[in-house]
Amino acid sequence: MLKSAPAALAAALLVSTACMAAAASPDVTAIVADPARPEADRALDASRHPAELLALLDLKEGQTVADIWPGDYWDRLFADAVGPTGKVYAAHLTEADAAEKQVTPPPGSMPIPEHPNVTSVSTTANTFSLPSKADVIWFRQNYHDLYDKFMGPSDVPAFNKAVYEALKPGGRFVIIDHTGKPGSSVEAMEKLHRIDPAVVKQDLAAAGFRLVAESDTLRNPDDALDLMVFNPAIRGKTDQFVYVFERP
């Protein structure tokens, strides 16, 4: 049975309204300022700049985010940003968990009780995969570990291609890491836990990504780039780059 013109228009408006609601942008300032957030998380905000970085990600309600080598601090924020209809995958690399002598949570488990839209994923670096395609994949301060003995090392091109395939077309791969000196060797990466930003750009270009945004939010020009990042003189104050790559 054909709908009347008014009925068809009303149905179209309902569909349009639903789509707009699904694509709504969260108020990141309100998310960060929420007094219900754990006090330990709030104490880290000054150094981590969550409002600025969430704004850079431009997450929408209903989207899917994967956090590689996950941490509850960011996963709580992502969970609030994508809302109850969105998903956050806490993506554990089994090699990293083994190296840190940590037990990988069972796949599909919910590691943050107050955020049931966060679920654990178990995968490997070289065959990285997710239960469903992601809008954003986030990898903070550990990309350099793909190169050193801590992770094997991994097959970096295979990892990046796997991340590419795990994203939706137009999806973004966000990499944050400690800045290393230009031309830094693998030995320097392992010793200092830093990486030359040019290496990251080259790696991701080779995998088919486009660099679409970067942020100076975590830059520190006073960091001489010669201290190990856990050195008390620089810990928490390292120069860090923030790159947003896109799968075309």
Please characterize this protein's 3D structure.
The protein has ten helices and seven strands. The chain is 34% helix and 20% strand. The longest helix has 18 residues, at 5-22. β1, α6 (72-82) and β2 form a beta-alpha-beta unit. By secondary structure, the chain is of the alpha/beta class. It has a seven-stranded mixed beta sheet with strand order 3-2-1-4-5-7-6.
Protein traits:
alpha/beta, disordered N terminus, 20% strand, methyltransferase activity, transferase, 34% helix, S-AdoMet-dep_MeTrfase_Alr7345, 248 residues, 7-stranded mixed beta sheet, 7 strands, methyltransferase, Rossmann fold
By oligomeric state, this entry counts as single chain
CATH architecture: 3-Layer(aba) Sandwich
Please identify which CATH superfamily we are dealing with. Answer: Vaccinia Virus protein VP39
Shape field:
globular
End-to-end distance:
41 Å
Compute the average pLDDT.
92
Instruction: Give helix and strand order, one letter per element, not per position.
Output: HHHHHEHEHEEHEHHEE
Query: Could you tell me the radius of gyration in angstroms?
Result: 20 Å
Main sheet overview: 7 strands, mixed
Strand line-up in the sheet with most strands = 3-2-1-4-5-7-6
**Count of folded domains:** 1
In total, the number of strands is: 7
Biased composition (Pro residues): 104-114
Region (Disordered): 100-120
Protein name: Methyltransferase
Keywords: Methyltransferase, Signal, Transferase
Can you summarize this structure?
The chain is an alpha/beta fold and 248 residues long.
